[in-house]
Known about the structure:
This protein is an alpha/beta fold. It has one domain (3-208): 3-Layer(aba) Sandwich (Rossmann fold). It is 34% helix and 17% strand. Helix 6 links the parallel strand 5 and strand 6. It is globular.
Amino acid sequence: MATFVLIHGAYQGGWIWKPVGERLAAEGHRVLARSLDGCAERKGQVRAGITTETQAAEIADLLFYADLTDVVLVGTSTGGMVMAAIAEQARERVARLVFADALALLDGEARQDFESRLFADLDPAMRRWALERWTPHPIVPMQAPVRLERFWDLAWNASVIWCKRSANPPQAHQRRTADRLKGRWHELDTGHYPMLTEPAALARLIAEG
């Protein structure tokens, strides 16, 4: 069985992975879906100094201190930025990367486009549930260029899941990720929050690679 570490996007927390995590755990996998520094139940820790790289370092430390190896990292939306930094910092512990409708910025690039209406893809009841859990996101990871000195030069076992009804990240951006990493390409006919709208299908793609 695999160990999956699920990385959420902006304004979210580990909570957003609950439907997917339950399905993976039911198959016997180990699942970690920690809220990033300053997010969700950790919103009281928001402070100057939180960056994409520091958020990634915390998860990389978790892999080290928990003696986790052959880990499958799964990132969605801006969580793709953090996931790439985790992978760079903990290369020897990562077996596979899954970009689930995720941003994957090159060294020096910054996040520029994001949805203007949070959780817009969800049905009204699910959107209310998600908005009740919405928290502000640390500002630096949303604005500053990422620092990835080695990530794009390393060989990775990777897959990209494009959500066809999602406007951001654009298809071209996600194609670039798949092309540069020589990754497998998957498509889901859903919006930007597949972990809530298509959790069974997403869990299957994550598990199968």
